[in-house]
Design a protein that fits this description.
This protein is of the alpha+beta class. The protein is built from five helices and four strands, in the order αααβαββαβ. Helix 1 packs across helix 2 and helix 2 crosses helix 3.
Length: 158
């Protein structure tokens, strides 16, 4: 796909987030001289061709009252990694779930899952429920609560 100057205008217009209005694509279109339909169609084409890899919402959990944020790290046997990762990722309390390489001997964990809660006690209870529900009692894990909040935003392109 050949990118035009107008495509770059579209990316610049959406990379900071969509406007919080009833018709955000129409609003973006007005700003760059396109129709709402043109904006939606072109974003879809860019997604199909892999130019835009992800298009989603950045939720600011703290503002919604979810102040206890934890990365739960798991030491999953390689032969179970896909199965455990998929099952964890399907749980409503898990907002992210991804694999990372171990850094032995200091860091044995290879699966990371994020859970947000209104208290550390609630997050801990959710982890315990996940272990019971998914049969993970044989897998070593640790709960790492956030101590500092960083700015949340999507990717930026130059």
């Amino acid at each position: 796909m050949v990118m035009s100057d107008r495509d770059y205008q579209l990316i610049a217009a959406i990379q900071g987030g969509l406007p919080l209005v009833s018709h955000p694509y129409a609003d973006v279109g007005r700003r760059i001289g396109w129709s709402e339909e043109q904006v939606i169609t072109r974003i879809g084409e860019m997604q199909q061709r892999g130019i835009i890899k992800r298009f989603g919402v950045v939720v600011r959990h703290h503002e919604l009252g979810y102040t206890a944020n934890a990365m739960v790290v798991w030491d999953v046997p390689e032969q179970r990694l896909d199965e455990v990762g998929e099952r964890l990722g399907d749980q409503s309390c898990v907002t992210l779930c991804y694999q990372r390489p171990r850094r032995l001997p200091e860091w044995p964990y290879n699966l990371f899952s994020m859970i947000h809660g209104r208290s550390q006690e609630r997050v801990t209870a959710q982890v315990e429920q996940l272990i019971e529900k998914l049969g993970l009692s044989d897998i070593r894990y640790d709960i790492l609560f956030s101590g500092r909040r960083f700015k949340q935003r999507g990717a930026r392109y130059q």
